[in-house]
Amino acid sequence: MKRREFLRNLGMVTGAGAVTFSIAGIPIKAFAQPFMNIQSISGKILVLIQLKGGNDGLNTIIPLDQYSIYSSKRPNIKIDENLIVKLNDLTGFHPALAQLKPLFEEGKLTVIQGVGYLNQNRSHFRSTDIWLSASDSDKYVFDGWVGRYLLKAFPDYPNVPHTHPMAIQIGSVQSGLFDSPQGGLAVAFSDPNAFYQLVSGISADNDPPPSTIAGDELKFLKEVAALSIKYGSVIKEKADKGNPQQDYSKGGTFGGQLKIIADLIAGGLETPVYLATLDGFDTHANQANTHQTLLSRLGESIKSFQADLDQLALADKVVVLTFSEFGRRVNENGSAGTDHGAALPMLLVGKNIQGGIFGSNPDLTKLDSNGDIKFIHDFRQIYATMLKDHFGMTSQQVNDVLLKDFQALPLLKSGITDVTYDIAIPNDYALMQNYPNPFNPSTKIQYSLPQPSEVNLKVYDMLGRNVSTIVNSYQSAGSYTVNFDGSNLASGTYIYSLETIAGKISKKMQLIK
Amino acid sequence: MNKSQYLQKITIWNDEAARHILSRTSFGFTKADVDFALSKTLDDFVDNYLLKEQPEPTAPNYNGIDWTTAPNNTTNQTEYNNWFRSLVYWWLNMMSNPGLSSREKMVWFWSNHFVSEYSTVLVPQLIYLQNKLFRQYAFGNIIELTKKVTIDSAMLYYLDGVRNTKNAPNENYARELLELFTIGIGNYTEEDIKQAARALTGWRINSTTLTSYFDAAGFDNGTKTFLGQTGNFGYQEIVNIIFTKQPTAEFLCRKLYKEFVYYQPNEDYVKQLAEIMRANNYNLKPVLSALYKSQYFHSADIRGAKIKSPIELLITTVRQFGLSTDNNFLNYIRTKSGELQQDIFNPPDVRGWEGQRKWMSTTTYPARNNYTDSIINGVRISSLTYKADVVAYARSFQSSENAVQLVEDVTKQLIQFPLSKARKDSLLSTLLDGAAVYDWSTYDPQSKTRLEKFFKALMRLPEFQLS
Fold it and tell me: What distance in Å separates residue A198's CA from the closest CA in chain B?
């Protein structure tokens, strides 16, 4: 496909993804914030940490309640029960994460259990692309979810230049996370001072490129040049001004990445998204030492970072979120390592989060056909939560960024939800009889999802007309209770119908006024 | 362009066509290379020079000693790292002095296809042997090469093949063999990976001689069902079955397309090229011959559409300005290559370098400019100065005393992308630096300073990054 067609197609993808979010009946999530200019409210910062290679979630967050199954499946690489850092009776940390336990106890760390997506792809590259682009497993989306977010947050880009970079990536190769129909949107560098020295000599130009494929590449190069010229000095200025106090040295070079981010935030840089990367999680062989080292760097660095933010009174603004392309196989392989797996936990760190453990431990007796952990939240629900409850986007804007409606999760203190949601995983898809029934004017409907699914809960009259859409969203596994208000309907019999990936279930209800 | 014309041979064999072929099949070429190409017919040049088999080069050495056959002694990692550096210099040297053959470009292609990393393998002998294998099969049979790679010692280490045994299969190599090396994602199941891993069991490496061998005791002797076929397969059958499948040739041609044509594949072109690959039983030479001569490859969309890899950028300057290829300077090239995110023999992961836009970030773009500045300003390394002689370079053009024509000729030589008039005008005014055009002379005492400014400006252009 030619680049130009390719970009046009991207435009279509984004446009077509605008799912109308119906607020007929009871809204799944109230529009907590009025429509606002995201730039003006933002001030909020998301620090993403990519754990490259596929983190072994099961040795990161260990299910104490299933320790005997866990240890039997992992005779050589299991963590000794008495070394596990207990978070509660059911769940514990890998000992290398001990530094994070105080944060957990202060409610500043959430373990989000069982994150993944339908039809897990076990290729590093494809699955990384899926996580970065926020696409379905069987769809190809050629820009990043953060890139799409930034174009919403900075709608006048590239016509109006911004004083501060829209996104910063610590590193030298730009991630697909920031790709957008307007090109890559992040400034990538490893060190603010070296970056300033580097860009001091280069210059921009306005010579228009020809309309060929080769011309598209020239345009791309000019955009990269323009980004580096524009931001070299502001990044240096803010880095010079910022003065983080913590010692990041135990985090190795990864600690250095978070130190730079702390530096820039403390210096007043108004960049909303940062990406740091910790590589080396592809532990096919002799994983124990490697994994220990990596998790220790992660824990030490996050601890220092959060301490700096607290000390500088900036903790209100920032949340940190880890992600990785997949978890690893439950059974260890023959090389004291693990092969590619499926769902895994994410860590969320910050002051304004709910804290605790969100979701239940993976059930090691109910693995998928490949012997991997099943997912209970779609990863895009976490993204939706960040966009809505951290950055304050409207539901419609979130849908545009994520290409469909994903139910946000109650992870942040600012998250407002009136859906009653029980995280215990049911065995079957089910739709209960509404209660009360008959009803006037409102009633409650319960349904359950054994795995995450796109959910449509609709009400029809006896002529088959859709009179209300109660839920139209992608939801986590669990049991849900929603309200239905029939105030503006006539008395009579109605059919309510639950559509999920497993099919359709319908029941009748009686409205008597 | 009509699809039926994609692989038709070009009818005009001229300067632009020759430069385009050379720019994609070498790491950098000279004016003499272009002149030579044009002294031959297109067919003659491509088939008898570019794709010609070459004698094997002398093995690398460290301080005069050939270490490539030394028995393994992993206790001496410092010595190993010295040997490894001599291997890097050896390869850079061949890239810089290729003659007219495109062999080293193909060695590079295969090393970025069947990926290993020195930082994982850590034994230079093995990296050398793998590099030698790629050189042997540079234009050779892909099925045979795939079989050799599957039991290549560096690969057995890198993707855990040595740990893959009947009682404890390790899926690492089996997955990448399918996903990245042959048939491509979407054309196999997770079960196929598990079955292939079983068939690939039993391979070991002699820890002293470093050669791989088959150990029947570790081999899973049972029946496997792989891509729809059932039998007691070993690695040869697995590779053979993969190459009976339709998507394999397309996957490999897409990879060739990404390296030689453009990073977003034109699927119609890829399919047509794959037919040639199948018709020639996966022998590579006829495929490359057709590609390099094809109309689509030479279209205006494609000429100048490739972003130079760091090594291409660096070697281009070495070749153009005739910079030294002593180890001192090659070490500078190696260091710069790493800064520009292409640390030779250490790709970021098993997919290799993705190339094109991934080469360019807000850090690597200015770093490229700093490098090209450095060779004009002069680089001082261990009391020696390495510096492009810009006056001599300018005088190598017949038009050296005519400023307008000199800009024309130099930009044509150094830049594949069609340069706009505004660009050329701006370069001309940089060259003249306020002087009148008729006053230009390379014999003017200020000409050296002016030429240095001019070449720095020229190599800072985004167009210079394209090939």
Answer: 6
